[in-house]
Amino acid sequence: MGENVQEQVIEAVRESPFFSIAMDESTDIGDVAQLLVWVRYLEKSLYPKEEVLCLLPLQGHTRGEDILDSICKYFETHHIPLDNLVSITTDGAPAIVGHDRGFVSLLKKKLTEQTVRDYHCIIHQHILCAKLKHGELNIVLKLAVKIVNFIRAKALNHRLFKAVLQDSEAGYTDLLMHTEVRWLSKGKVLEQLIALLPEIEHFVNSRGQSFPELKDVKWVIMLHFLSDLFAHFNALNLMLQGKQ
Asked: What is the 3-class SS of the chain, one letter each residue?
């Protein structure tokens, strides 16, 4: 079934008047470099569609010429005309975008009779920006996570806080726990933290824990700013996945 699906994609790309590719290279647990290639093409209805085209193992070196050789062999083997390629999106690695011997430069030299545009994927910069490694915003974020984890990390605190929310008829019945693994986590946690600030302040005080920042106007304003920022990050993530 998998081969049949791949053949359908390849056939559709062959018939498309134009197509573009996005690619990323990574190393698997067996220390084999794997080149993943996505393709965006036009269906017969002229509606754009995006699919995974192939996963190509790169034996030995992963230089620009090695990547070019692997890509060209794949396209030639499956009779996909490179003449219809209009753009390439990459992560900006030197082997890909190097000025002289990068894959993109070598491919453009090979396809001299057409204009191939190259783009840098925004997701990497987006992720780095979202990490907030330094500055005041990072301090605010760390404290926000600490407050949430004070409630969620201990089972007793969690149960008591849920009871407080139920009694106060708050807009939420629980508080999410932050985790780095879940990519929407920060935005959702901050959204709930802001909505439940009065209940959280009352609860932590009743448990003998003091977070004076909860009454600091500047800290609360920066917390709201962070929440808005991560809401935009989450919206962008969902949009990039085609879910919005």
From this structure: CHHHHHHHHHHHHHHCCCEEEEEEEEECCCCCEEEEEEEEEECCCCCEEEEEEEEEEECCCCCHHHHHHHHHHHHHHCCCCHHHEEEEEECCCHHHHCCCCCHHHHHHHHCCCCCCEEEECCHHHHHHHHHCCCCHHHHHHHHHHHHHHHHHCCHHHHHHHHHHHHHHCCCCCCCCCCCCCCCCHHHHHHHHHHHCHHHHHHHHHHCCCCCHHHHCHHHHHHHHHHHHHHHHHHHHHHHHCCCC
